[in-house]
Amino acid sequence: MIKTIIVSKEEEERLDSYLAKQEETFSRSRIQKLLEEKKITVNGKVPKASYKVQKGDEIQIQIEAPKETKLTPQEIPLEIVYEDENMLVVNKQKGLVVHPGCGNLEGTLANAVMAHCKGSLSGIGGELRPGIVHRLDKDTSGLLMIAKNDKTHIALSEKIKNREIKKTYIALVRGIISEKEATICMPIGRSTTDRKKMAVTKKGKEAITHFKVLNRYTTTKASYTLLEVKIDTGRTHQIRVHLAEIGHPIVGDMVYSNGKNEFGIKGQCLHAQRLEFMHPITKKEMKLEAKVPEYFQEILMQLEEKK
């Protein structure tokens, strides 16, 4: 599909920023990519992103038609924390995969939100990730944002990129952390020994994790620390990798620990508790919170009793 835009008045603006204002479903970075792919022309020629548009310019954008998703809507229970015509925020339960992989197209959060939203979802995430702006690991519970349209999806993605969305997690780790609070700044990349895992590596991407101690527990058998965790970056498995790297793996994390599972739980004690951000459309300040899940609360109660 070809979209044509005629510049109707004198403009003193770069082509990429001009088009970002004209096309609300395109971010500036997306327009720059289309320019690199030679899918944007001005008066029949492929311009640079820095080209200053002029009155009378005929701009043509080659837009691919959205692919029809292969996913099937499924009635999977969702805990809706917030919803309006542009987005929704859910409290994802532990054990639920956010989006499917090829060959596994059922039983995910994406299937559930398709059923709930009945086709009103952003397509930017791709055919297997409709509406999905960010993700949580399968066994991490908590707040997750979903976009109902492309404009909201782009705006939320930009906010995440610019670190304008504050995410707060609660984590229970093994061992006593003596500091009241600290920051972990270690690059994270794919493990060279196990491609299914992430690791701290010099060749990885910047990853910054802040934590504050909420409580410490010492029992006759072991010791634990309850943390409030905030992240500036969103690398895959970031919190789990960072805490394991400093010698305090998350309780229940069978991937980044030595396999101990003293409470007999499946999955880690990590919960995305709060989200704070400005709504991308209404500009309202949003502060959303999800209670720590019952299994997590029960573990904390056990530890309090044994202190």
* Mean pLDDT across every amino acid position: 89
Number of domains: 3
Q: Structural class of the helix and strand makeup?
A: alpha+beta
CATH architecture descriptor text of the largest domain: 2-Layer Sandwich
Task: Specify the CATH class of the largest domain.
Answer: Alpha Beta
CATH superfamily of the largest domain: Pseudouridine synthase
Q: What is the helical fraction, as a range of percent?
A: 10-25%
Instruction: Extract low-pLDDT stretches.
Output: none
Query: Which fold name is given in CATH as the topology of the largest domain?
Result: Pseudouridine synthase
Shape: elongated
User: How much of the residues is beta strand, in percent?
Assistant: 25-35%
Radius of gyration, in angstroms, nearest whole number: 23 Å
Number of helices: 6
Main sheet?
9 strands, mixed
Distance N to C terminus? 66 Å
Number of strands: 14
The helix/strand series, from N terminus to C terminus, equals: EHHEEEEHEHEEEEEEHEEH
What does this 3D model show about the protein?
The chain has 307 residues and is an alpha+beta fold. It folds into three domains: 2-62, Structural Genomics Hypothetical 15.5 Kd Protein In mrcA-pckA Intergenic Region, Chain A, CATH 3.10.290; 80-161, 2-Layer Sandwich (Pseudouridine synthase), CATH 3.30.2350; 166-306, Pseudouridine synthase (2-Layer Sandwich), CATH 3.30.2350. It has helices at residues 15-22, 28-36, 109-117, 150-161, 238-245, 294-306, and strands at 2-6, 40-42, 58-62, 80-83, 87-92, 141-147, 166-174, 181-185, 188-190, 198-200, 208-218, 223-231, 270-278, 285-289. Strands 4, 5, 6, 7, 8, 11, 12, 13 and 14 form a nine-stranded mixed beta sheet that branches. Strands 1-3-2 form a three-stranded antiparallel beta sheet.
